[in-house]
Design brief:
The chain is 29% helix and 19% strand. This is SET domain containing 9.
């Protein structure tokens, strides 16, 4: 019995250590490829914020149009200029469809991963990691990810460095620390899941959702929201993606916020919502697993 218990604990540790920050820190000298050096915080950008925003808007807009027949409540709250924009885009996308309200009868919707492929030329998904005992990982399931592309997002509740996260952090391998101390809890189970759902319900404005909670389920609406399962690189597996912080601008379309997989722990209109995206460091082919470096050293 003690032997089985120890083996179980060892297997659990084998999966946990790939995201356990103290373990990574203690093994830096043995694993130099997990480090990424940047001269200063402001230069920790592989691509520009404008490029990140452009990609997110492109994907989210495609998801919105794909679900257009389910957006009627939201559309009633939008200005006429915004509604006509989407109707024009939809008309261009499906020129043969004259009656937009009957679109669901004439044009079937696609799965989110299919929309991602049609929009960016690749799709990603969770699967068993190629690392022994690492649990889940994220793979390119279709297409080619070009260098510099936003390949996924790190979902979760966003905590400022002065906000309480002790109980959520116990045994939690999914807490990401930003350069300025902001934390993102990407755990989709336990108290972390309860906290995210609570904040998601708090910020909702009638039919308008300020964030996406489907990454907590098996039916993910935003196919990019799998970044919390990207494993750390090793000496044998070089990093092919890296993390990049992104603050959602005030001009972000309110109707597309339903696809943002992050939400602030405390409601604060003054601070922009922090998101973290993963950017490809090289071309990544179909079937490859994503590996990132968790540590950034500011010199």
């Amino acid at each position: 019995m003690p032997g089985r218990l120890l083996r179980g604990l060892w297997q659990r540790w084998g999966r946990y250590k790939y995201r356990f920050v103290p373990w990574i820190a203690l093994n830096l000298s043995h694993n130099p490829r997990t480090l990424r050096y940047v001269p200063e915080e402001s230069k920790d950008k592989v691509i520009s914020d404008e490029d990140v925003l452009g990609t997110l808007l492109k994907v989210f807009q495609a998801l919105f149009l794909n679900d257009f027949n389910k957006q009627s409540e939201i559309l009633t709250m939008l200005p006429e200029s915004v509604k006509s924009k989407y109707q024009d885009l939809l008309a261009v996308e499906h020129q043969g469809v004259k009656l937009l309200e009957n679109r669901h009868q004439e044009q079937s919707t696609f799965k989110p991963e299919e929309i991602l492929y049609k929009t960016l030329g690749f799709s990603v998904a969770q699967a068993t990691s190629s690392l022994i005992s690492a649990g889940k990982g994220v793979f390119v399931t279709k297409g080619l990810v070009p260098k510099g592309a936003v390949v996924s997002m790190y979902p979760g509740t966003v905590y400022q460095k002065y906000e309480p996260i002790f109980f959520q952090s116990i045994g939690n391998p999914f807490i990401f620390r930003c350069l300025d101390g902001v934390l993102i809890d990407g755990n989709d189970k336990g108290i972390s899941k309860v906290v995210y759902r609570s904040c998601n319900g708090r910020d909702r404005l009638g039919p308008l959702k300020m964030s996406d909670s489907t990454w907590l389920t098996s039916e993910i609406h935003n196919p990019l929201a799998v970044g919390q399962y990207v494993n750390n690189c090793s000496n044998d597996r070089a990093a092919n993606v890296c993390y990049q912080e992104f603050d959602v601008p005030a001009v972000f379309p309110i109707e597309l916020k339903q696809y943002l997989p992050n939400i602030a722990y405390s409601y604060d209109k003054q601070s922009p919502l922090r998101c973290v995206v993963l950017v490809a460091l090289r071309d990544i082919s179909q079937g490859e697993e994503l590996f990132s470096n968790y540590y950034t050293i500011v010199s």
